[in-house]
Amino acid sequence: THVCKDVITADGQEGFIIAPGNTSLISEKIKYFYDNPNKIVEMGTKARIKIENNFTFDSVAKRIVNFCNTKS
Questions:
Q1: CA angle at residue 6 from 20 to 12, to 5 degrees?
Q2: Are 26 and 20 in contact (CB under 8 A)?
Q3: How far is CA 3 from CA 15, 44, 61, in A?
């Protein structure tokens, strides 16, 4: 399964976690956003804040260095 677990850590908060190829669940979530347009802005804002706080150049560089150090 390919998901953005670093960004969407709580399904339904910053977005939805959907398994690849699950067209019925994708359709369900599209309908959810159609019925709840305010959630598009709400989830998008939460995702943006999470990215701004956790994915700065420095924080990503530190994670890469730590990853490389554990592999050597």
A1: 65
A2: no
A3: 11, 16, 21
Instruction: For residue 57, count CB atoms less than 10 angstroms from its CB and return exposed for 0-12, middle for 13-18, buried for 19 or more.
Output: exposed
For residues 50 and 7, is the Cβ–Cβ distance under 8 A?
yes
- How many CA atoms within 13 Å lie on the side-chain side of 20? 4
Summarize pLDDT for 30-46 with one digit per residue, the tens: 999 999 999 999 999 99
Q: Distance between CA 11 and CA 32 in Å, rounded?
A: 14
In percent, the amount of the chain with pLDDT more than 90 equals: 40
